[in-house]
TrEMBL record:
Protein name: ornithine decarboxylase
Residues at the catalytic site: 347
GO BP, sorted A to Z: putrescine biosynthetic process from arginine, via ornithine
Every Orn/DAP/Arg decarboxylase 2 N-terminal domain range: 42-277
Amino acid sequence: MHLIKDCPIIITKAAFKAEEFIRKKIELFTKDCDPFYAVDLEDICNKHVRWLTAMPRVTPHYAVKCNDDILVLKLLGFLGAGFDCASKTEIKKIIDLGISSDRIIYANPCKQSSYVRYAKQVGVETMTFDNEQELMKIKENYSDAKVVLRIVTDDSSAVCQFSMKFGADLETARFLLEKAKEIELDVIGVSFHCGSGQMTSQAFVDAIKNARSIMSYGDKLGFDMKLLDIGGGFPGNTGTDEYFTEIAVAINRALDEHFPVQSGVRIIAEPGRYYVASAYTLATNIIATREMTDPATNEKKLMYYVNDGVYGSFNCVLYDHYIPEPTPLKKDISGKQYTCSIWGPTCDGLDCITSSTCLPKLTTDDWIIWKNMGAYTISGAVQFNGIPFGKPLYFMAKPFWDNVKQAFEQRPVQYTRALKYRMNSECGNEVEDEMLPWEDLEDSILPSILI
């Protein structure tokens, strides 16, 4: 394997698993102990194919807030996804990639007035609302906007619940439609969000039924209700394929019942963690250790300090209720396990990644890896105490690269629909030891993607 300084994407001869890629990187750069992510771009491509296969009627609009990594945005834009943006900054990031404004939904029900004016300036017409004051704000700042009414859902089974903050109940929703009619603002559909990390498919089914009721009322008032946004909440961790399929089956049935194809209603969704959670594996280095003895039980307990923490990549522990699972990279260790805690590198006692887990005895400079770290990690990280968090290192097999390399050109690219169905068959699963050096790839695009 050859890594060239400042090259963000490593092209491999065949598919690598994240752990294998991490080992290769560490073997090559033994003195580089900074935390880093191994980002499997093929995983994101495969997730897109899986989505289109499971829910062909539902166009994904990636939730930028989940992970705003610019290369992920470029790749998803090339694959044909739309984008769910929640602020001026997120909208600008997508527009600056050369992606058309009609592929963006401004899905924040409570927006700053200047952000609404910016959306008008760049042509982002579609935006959500859930209260009368927001309606009046949009009318004043962007009277030609196409607005989408967000309704409340039962998100009690979700990891992160939103209904206490956003969404109109059904009675209020009908009033808001009447108000929009009165002030001549164009309502084009209904949206909802069943909560991030939704644990039951029934929440989607019930919300789709309620959306049908409100859209029918809007049709009676004279609106052309032709958009349904079913939000996010779809699982993305490794091992959740079966649950995702269960949700997709339930959604498809509900859509066929309440929004059949002949209704002409366009269906979109706002998946975030679904696309990126499993693509990112974080590698952290142990910078210090301590041994403690529990005075009550006389049990030896270990404390490991690693070079990324809750102010950095592990902010998901605080904000996303995530419980990360540590795995020692070193395999030649005894089978004995110890109760231990894992701490971040800052001077704050809050910086605890996990207060109790079981690991073998490790030493300074050993590595711990953390899978499923792509969602709500980088996007919320800061360099508290001046300590950097993990930086991404991307990898992709040559067969995949040949299909998607246009995504990383500087110029805007056109979406090719046929691409969506080619990828799986062209990516081998056999792992080879050697990775192609970049200088051996005769590809004029490579120099243009240096960052």
